[in-house]
Amino acid sequence: MNIAGFLLFLTIFAISIQEMQFKYPELLWALFLLLIPIIIHLFQLRRFKKTPFTNVKFLKKVVVESRRSKALKKWLLLFTRLALLAAIVLAFAQPFFAKKEALKQKEAVIYLDDSFSMQMKSEGTSLLQNAVQQLIQSVPKSQKFTLFTNTRTFRNTQIEDLQNDLLALAYSGKQLSLDDIYLKAHSLFSSDGTTEKNLIVVSDFQETMYSGEVDSLGPINRHFVELRPQTMENIAIDSVFFRSFNDDHLNLTVSLSSTTEIESTPVSLYNDQVLTAKSSAKFNTDKKGEVSFTIPASEVFKGTLEITDNGLSYDNRLYFNIDEKEKIKVLEIGPKNDSFLHRIYTEDEFELTAVTLNALNYGDIEKQHLVVLNELPGIPSPLTASLKAFIEDGGHLAIIPAGDADVNSYNLLTSSFGAAFGEVNRGRKNITHISFEHPLFRNVFEKTISNFQYPTSSVHYKLRSKASAALAFQDNEPFLVAGEGFYLFASPLSADYSNFQNAPLIVPTFYNIGTNSLKIPQLYYVLGRPAHIDVPINLTQDGVLKVEKENYELIPLQELLTHRVSMTFNDELMEDGIYGITDGKQIIGHLSFNHDRNESDLGYLNVGDIVGVNHSTSLPSLFQSMENDNRVTELWKWFAILALILLMVEILIQKLFK
């Protein structure tokens, strides 16, 4: 019975040890010392002392009681000493309870969404401010982590060092997709495969962040903290454009959108911060609204459109400007002075000069933005040399071949930009294919047209060029090839050979050829999108143009050409507004930039549908959960206390069983 109880004690003790983890497991070998008290108690040497007794009956009674008392005392001391020795050994081995992950070294990378959609309110503060406060309160002060936003990165820092930067964090017009976030986070983690890596994404998770397929991060744990605004109400100014214009007035139309059904909202128009008009935009059942303003056509206008609503603030304002427009200079060289181009290149936007080859002043070519060779029988060598220099200097050239053209003279010119006219074919063919995504026709058509009145041509040359075809025949042979600074037609366009002059396509085709030759500033540009602007100015070789706004100044990428400077913008500008183009201290023009409106539509992801992520709605609950998972319950103190208790129990046993 005693042996069975001892075996039960050992079994329970062994099971308890299996569930524990030890800081110094090698000390558990000392548990073999438990054999020492067992051996001592089971094989101890008994010493007998002779005592004379006269009362044999009393002696028998004493012997029986003494044996029982000694047996009980022996087993109590055995169990107590075994437990005492085991408690001491376990206390020095420092046992604890913890999950496997709690023992690994941790790495944490936090993505904090600071895009404009985080301006929405929750509990009286913006989502971004709410997220910052939660971070400051929840992240353990001693924890090292890396944090990145849409534009900034803070590596291997602590929350106390980062607190001021977080509180001063401004909203960004850039929003990273989940793919971008994963790629960025992956680059910020170490290559150590033994550490536990946690990516914490704090965002409102707009639909625009998710493309449908997200790359796996492998062993990296993903935690999504989803912040939601209390209301989904937002009104945005989407765009402004010219509805109509004449010599005296311009009619501007402003487009708005709302996330909820409303009847109207007031819109204010400012010119250089001075209120010039105010009107109410009416909304339809599709939650789209419009309002129109009329402004003078003859003055420089630095416009700001403004509304007031309780949603996002970044889309309550839209900037635009109208400067004195530079007319695009077009030179037509052909056998006749009178042509169809006069109907397209009107005097309000273009300065068209039509001359015959004999009347051409070669010095006028370099002053043009676009030169059109209209059905010349051949191209003389002096003209070829002038046009090559013109194209190299950024000019644009359009060639319409004659029905009986000297192809060799044409190719002496076109070979300089990798194109050639081939053999001539006669026979009527339809022009059936429009490349709607070609830069020449992009944003011209509201929808793809597959069935229209096809223009025809009876004479057509085979064009050889690596440039893409903007228009093509029914057999996919190119009718119009558009490359970098040149446009080649495969057919003459006069009525004897083609009816293209009477087709609706002729207007957008030649109008866009003309407007592409000088990239006049638009009403406004969208920040983050590539923009190319030509500024008509004669700069010195060392001259440089700048764009300025208040205390900000930028020298954009620019190319000095004859009579103009070509400027290119990518993502250098971060702030919306009206910028001045300066030559030295003189303002020679203006450019307006606005933020993309893609965050104004408050559509959100269902984060619960994304596979492989831990979903949370607040940072405190997430960090509390992570702390619980990483908690280590140390037991050595309890085993030390148990050892002291067992020592006292042994002393009591010694005193009680004398």
UniProtKB/TrEMBL annotation:
Source species, domain of life: Bacteria
Domain Aerotolerance regulator N-terminal, chain residue ranges per copy: 20-95
InterPro entries cross-referenced by the UniProt entry: Aerotolerance_reg_N, Class_I_gatase-like, Double_TM_dom
Alphabetically ordered keywords of this record: Membrane, Transmembrane, Transmembrane helix
Membrane-spanning ranges: 27-45, 75-97, 635-653
Keyword Transmembrane helix: yes
Annotated NCBIfam families: two_anch
Record protein name field: N-terminal double-transmembrane domain-containing protein
Lineage: Bacteria, Pseudomonadati, Bacteroidota, Flavobacteriia, Flavobacteriales
